[in-house]
Amino acid sequence: MFVAVLVVVIVFVGGITRLTESGLSITHWSVVTGIVPPLTDAAWQAEFDLYRQTAEYRFESGPAGMDLEAFKFIYFWEWFHRILGRVIGLAFLVPMVWFWATGAIPKTFMPRLLALFALICGQGALGWYMVASGVGTELTDVSHFRLSAHLLTALFLLGGLVWTALDLRAVHQYSPASPARLTRFGLGVALVLFIQLLLGAWVAGLNAGHAAYDWPLMNGEFAPALDHTRGLLWSLTHDPFVLHFLHRWWAFVAVIALVWLARRIRSTDRLASIAIHSAFGLQVLLGIATVLTEVSLWVAVMHQLVGALLVAATAWGLYGEARRAEAV
């Protein structure tokens, strides 16, 4: 659960990194030496010179008049995001090795715990793969496909951590309780939420939040016109207006699925039911507020933060649904 909290924190910081356009400020990936930020004026200037070679600086930050002090601000957020990733890895690995050595972890859980640790390590590589799409290319932003992979993997990790923590607690309290299994209904809810999270990640990666600043209409119309010149598939994966529209209204499909889940577990896990209702209610309001405030930094960051909390609450609820199904 503690590592899950750290993942929520890094998703929050990742949102700040994205919205302040800090992600390309560090143009190389150094697992060990990257822990220490530049300490001298010469080192700072060298990092700034590397950033000035990116398309983002040449076409956006440079013309906007970015100086060294402004560069230090965006560098901090990217550096802090990477440091948190290392902290999460250590926070998971060290206790796992200790509890494994002392026999506190049931043997049946070790493959899952090792898989979660591999996922944490893979996130670092996936993060660099995302950043590399905007370094040494003519793109002024990272690939929205790679961004979505990086974000959704973090949220999948978060759900896995919550589920595993609940499983370990159940085994400890009700031994010899067996691990819970996701139900078909739970899988359906998870898929509906996954689609909404994927749409949200693409909206973020394409800056599609700026496609319209009114709600429920979009620029005075209910639905944007489709661009047929590049085909339907391109529109569904690249058109900011279409993705903004889909993210707005698929949210209510997700709400229906989450309400259904919360009602099913209300009698067996009331706290999880309350958490799900609270998270999706606040998330919808923050989504609308993000649009109406023209993607205000802190409103948009809170939207991403509550999105992570919604994933954690849903994982909690899906676990309760699995245990409820066992008891029927």
Description:
This protein is an all-alpha fold and 328 residues long. The protein has two domains: 176 residues, no CATH class; 149 residues. It contains eleven helices and no strands. α5 packs antiparallel against α6. The radius of gyration is 21 Å and the shape is globular. The two termini are 28 Å apart. The model has no long low-confidence stretch (mean pLDDT 91).
Query: How many β strands by DSSP?
Result: 0
Quick one: biggest sheet?
none
Q: What's the overall geometry?
A: globular
Element order: H for helix, E for strand: HHHHHHHHHHH
Helix content: over 70%
Total number of helices: 11
What is the number of independent domains?
2
How many angstroms does the end-to-end distance come to? 28 Å
Mean pLDDT across the residues is: 91
Strand content: under 5%
Helix/strand/pairing class, anyone?
A: mainly alpha
What is the multimeric organization of the chains shown? single chain
Rounded to the nearest angstrom, the radius of gyration is 21 Å
Summarize the structure.
This protein has 328 residues and is an all-alpha fold.
Give the topology, please.
Layout: H1 2-19, H2 41-51, H3 55-61, H4 68-101, H5 110-132, H6 144-174, H7 184-205, H8 232-238, H9 240-265, H10 270-292, H11 297-327
